[in-house]
Design brief:
541 residues; Beta-Lactamase; Rossmann fold; Helicase, Ruva Protein, domain 3; 4 domains; five-stranded antiparallel beta sheet
Length: 541
């Protein structure tokens, strides 16, 4: 008894799988293999020929005159021209109109198929069965699956074929709908990409750089001159003079305008994070590296990389940056695979790099690599004739943001022209935004709305002495180390003097705490403690 049961199980195990299940499984694999469905449909017809003894088959997509065969089996190529396809039109239109499948045991006896058989003649002999199944999705007929085989005799076999082919047609309908949705989404994304590219190119055109002064016209002319090339560009100037705006203008004037524009502020990150940001890292390269991450060089491939405050990078990072500029290749942090990139580098600094090279703080070979073309951006105090134009530009921009018309009185404009603007264009923009808020609903900025007229502008107190222009140092030398203080920071002893020194350092460093801490020989934590101790609020630009 036991032996007989084991034998029965063994025989069942040796039985082949149901061919219908196998066919459906293979068809599913074909449809999931690619969004290009025509090769998949050809593969499906070959499967039907092998597993269901199909003699001829065809997949027709589209309606009415737009209907065309996208895949076929058993038909000579010359039979599939537009004139021959007209012969199948009556059958296809009938199936699409009714939405129901059709099964004919002997196609030669069906009047509806007369024009079809004229267009697609076959050899005389054994009668042929004809099946036409609508390819449906959400009650919409997307096409027709045509299937011909030698007459199977009993209608039970024809019904069995019909059930299987309906499953196949349903799978094909789902695949077509999915492909159409993907294609529609791709078209939408391409249109959105093109719109954003046009918007960015319009927004960052060199014509949008405000300035009619001689100094700015020279900068604009040189920007036009260097943009078409591949040379690295070094932008020099104080913080807030518009170096990033010029960098973007160079990018959108260059042949790389359709590529990415990637920026990174080198002074805002410690050395360990800066290296990872520039070159990326592999999974597990360090604690917290849970997945691989592309660096800015990889992200900028085919486009432009803008490195702001390049004069503040450490010697170790300088070495790796030099290699990328020389060899156009690098390895991710924790990786061994060499990655090649095609990137144009634009860098910017407010430091005196020549003096940094002499002091050994900046590599001379890297200096020569990044300083192929230099553009010096003048501070705002040296082009005061541009201030009225900038004021008009910012007021128009803020009028759109605030939803009301903003204007400025002549006395208020005269106050702005007389200011020194140590923070340059960025500070002017912030000053105007404060004044616009102070003006309230009236929308007209008066002299009393300007911060320096009410003693609320620290810059007017801190920056009475004129800054030394480039190429002399923008950042002052740190004072000597005192014998007391917060962890031996470079702060003077008197509280009032220490507070002024902290504010001055933060102003000079554009209120970037990491940069100011390095300037004062403090840790970021010590600097943060000192700022809180002396009640110095952090400015955000």
């Amino acid at each position: 008894m036991i032996d007989s049961s084991i034998a029965d199980q063994s025989r069942k195990a040796r039985q082949p799988f149901n061919p219908e299940f196998t066919t459906i499984y293979e068809i599913g694999k074909l449809l999931n293999s690619s969004l290009d469905l025509e090769p998949a449909f050809r593969g499906i017809l070959k499967l039907l020929a092998a597993n269901l003894a199909m003699e001829r088959g065809m997949v027709v997509l589209g309606r009415d005159e737009a209907a065309r065969a996208v895949a076929w089996f058993g038909f000579p190529q010359e039979q599939l021209g537009p004139d021959r396809m007209a012969g199948a039109g009556s059958v296809v239109r009938y199936i699409q109109k009714t939405g129901f499948p059709t099964a004919v045991p002997d196609e030669s006896q069906e009047p509806l198929l007369a024009s079809y058989l004229v267009g697609f003649p076959r050899r005389k002999g054994t009668p042929m069965s004809f099946l036409a199944i609508p390819i449906l999705h959400d009650r919409e007929c997307l096409g027709v699956l045509i299937f011909e085989r030698r007459s199977a005799g009993p209608s039970a076999q024809l019904d069995k074929d019909m059930r299987l082919l309906q499953l196949v047609a349903n799978l094909m309908g789902q695949a077509i709908r999915f492909r159409n949705k993907v294609a529609e989404e791709q078209r939408r994304l391409v249109a959105e990409r093109d719109r954003l590219r046009t918007e960015l190119a319009t927004k960052h055109r060199i014509e949008n750089v405000v300035g009619q002064s001689k100094r700015m016209q020279e900068v604009i002319a040189l920007t036009h001159q260097v943009a078409p090339g591949r040379s690295t560009v070094l932008l020099r100037g104080e913080s807030g003079t518009g170096k990033e705006a010029i960098a973007r203008a160079i990018h959108f004037l260059s042949p790389r305008k359709n590529g990415p524009f990637i920026k990174l502020n080198c002074a805002a990150l410690p050395e360990s994070l800066l290296e990872s940001e520039l070159f990326g890292h592999e999974k597990g390269a360090f604690t917290g590296a849970l997945q691989e991450r592309k660096g800015r060089f990889e992200l900028a491939h085919g486009g432009t990389l803008f490195l702001d405050e390049i004069g503040d990078i450490s010697p170790a990072v300088q070495v790796k940056l030099l290699r990328v500029l020389q060899e156009r290749e690098f390895e991710r942090l924790g990786g061994t695979r060499t990655i090649r990139v095609d990137v144009r580098l634009i860098s910017a600094t407010n430091r005196n790099l020549e003096e940094a090279v002499l002091k050994g703080e900046f590599r001379a070979d890297l200096y020569y690599r990044i300083n192929v073309v230099s553009l010096f951006l003048p501070p705002l105090r040296e082009r005061t004739e541009d201030i009225p134009l900038l004021v008009e530009h910012f007021l128009n921009k803020m009028s759109e943001e605030f939803g009301r018309r903003l204007s400025i009185s002549s006395p208020a404009l005269e106050v702005l022209v007389r200011c020194q603007w140590p923070g340059n264009v960025r500070e002017l923009q912030n000053c105007l935004e404060r004044a616009a808020n102070a003006a309230g609903g009236a929308g007209r900025i008066a002299e009393t709305h300007i911060a320096c007229q009410t003693g609320q502008c620290l810059s007017s107190l801190l920056w009475k002495r004129e800054l030394t222009p480039l190429p002399t140092p923008i950042v002052a030398e740190p004072p000597p180390v005192p014998t007391n203080g917060l962890g031996k920071p470079n702060l003077v002893r008197s509280p009032s003097g220490a507070r002024e020194q902290l504010i001055e350092a933060m102003e000079r460093c554009g209120w970037v705490q990491a940069k100011a801490a390095r300037m004062l020989h403090l840790t970021p934590r010590q600097l943060g403690y000192a700022l809180r101790k002396y009640g110095i609020p952090i400015k955000k630009f």
